[in-house]
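If it is no trouble, might I ask you for a protein's amino acid sequence along with its backbone structure tokens?
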Amino acid sequence: MKREKLLEKLRQALRTEENATAIYMEHLSALAGRIEIDKHLADRIHSVLDFLVKENQRHKSLVLDMIELIERTERDDW
């Protein structure tokens, strides 16, 4: 894959991660204060959403590292 095409795809993935994290955070906020559900279920949902947010942050970091690597090299084929 050519350098610019790969960078475009990685930046698109980065935007997707950022959007997903925002959505997960909205759900966490709603869960925390706006809905009344069983505490055990609420704790489980919170745990899953928290895991998703952390994994998105980890993936975002990996994507940023890849973008930085590609941008600082002159290599065109990846």
In short: The mean pLDDT is 87. Helices lie at 3-33, 39-71. The first helix runs from residue 3 to 33.
